[in-house]
Amino acid sequence: MKIVILSVGRPQRAAFGPIFDDYAARIRRFGVDFDAKWVPEVRAGGRFSDAHVREREAKALGDALPDRGCAIVLSPEGALLDSEAFAKRLESWARRSASFVIGGPLGLDPAFAERAEAKLSLTPMTLPHELARVVLAEQLYRAVTILKRVPYHK
Question: Which domains does the chain have, with CATH numbers?
Answer without folding.
Answer: 2-153 (3.40.1280.10)
